[in-house]
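Design job #97: recover the sequence.
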């Protein structure tokens, strides 16, 4: 099983429980509950007979406390697996936060230089780097390749990355930490080895001095049991995210949701 939240219209959230075995087709939706309050969702899911719920052996979810409580109460025999992509997303957001911090600094420096030039009645010209970017543009355009592995960079992105990392070593350090975490999940098959590699990653984070990465490190430590369960079957919440995308496409096909009850009726007729 997978459990996740999705939005139908106006930001209103629904908790959706899906069956991975259905592969996004008939039988994929097990339950769809308005809201994300654990108490409400549990009351609805518990309408499914206890005997059937006990057959669930594994459930993937994010790190939200309410999702963990729902999974624990409704599926007591299931192994809970924290989705590795949610963990990686935290690291990527921390990396982008560092890039954005330097971008605001570059904008401030440029504004100060423009104001100074005006006072001295001089014409201001931004310094252009060897690849044709200004410093401000370099930091803005670096956003996209920082999401990717080095092996997937284009020649222009390699040139831009070399300039970025030379000027901002902190961004390179944060990028290496992000890729290091990704590699642990992608290249490790054994749970014990995964645990050892995560311990080494925590040590690197401590040495880096980045507050945001230290927060991620503490989050992983607090959820380490369910995160390590990933290495048993390499299960993720990708099927739930894929189904969310299918719901959005279904919604777009009908140009939005005017009547939520009727939309859910059509959705469950096809996928439940």
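Job complete. Output follows.
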């Amino acid at each position: 099983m997978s459990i996740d939240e999705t939005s139908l219209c106006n930001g209103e959230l629904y908790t959706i429980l899906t069956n991975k075995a259905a592969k996004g087709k008939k039988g994929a939706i097990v339950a769809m509950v308005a809201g994300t309050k654990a108490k409400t969702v549990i009351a609805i899911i518990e309408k499914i007979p206890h005997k059937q719920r006990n057959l669930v052996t594994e459930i993937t979810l994010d790190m939200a406390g309410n999702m963990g409580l729902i999974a624990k109460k409704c599926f007591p025999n299931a192994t809970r697996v924290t989705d590795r992509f949610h963990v990686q997303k935290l690291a990527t957001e921390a990396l982008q936060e560092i890039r954005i911090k330097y971008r605001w600094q570059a904008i401030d420096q440029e504004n100060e230089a423009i104001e100074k030039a005006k006072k001295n009645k001089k014409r201001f010209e931004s310094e252009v780097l060897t690849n044709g970017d200004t410093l401000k543009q370099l930091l803005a355009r670096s956003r996209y390749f920082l999401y990717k592995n080095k092996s997937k960079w284009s020649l222009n992105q390699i040139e831009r990355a070399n300039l970025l990392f030379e000027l901002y070593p902190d961004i390179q350090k944060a990028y290496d930490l992000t890729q290091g975490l990704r590699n642990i999940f992608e290249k490790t098959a054994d749970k014990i080895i995964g645990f050892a590699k995560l311990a080494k990653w925590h040590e690197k984070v401590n040495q880096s001095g980045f507050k945001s990465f230290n927060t991620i490190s503490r989050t992983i430590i607090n959820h380490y049991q369910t995160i390590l369960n990933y290495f048993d079957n390499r299960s993720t919440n990708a099927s739930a995210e894929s189904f969310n995308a299918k719901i959005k496409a279904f919604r777009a096909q009908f140009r939005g949701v005017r009547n939520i009850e009727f939309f859910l009726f059509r959705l469950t007729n096809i996928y439940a």
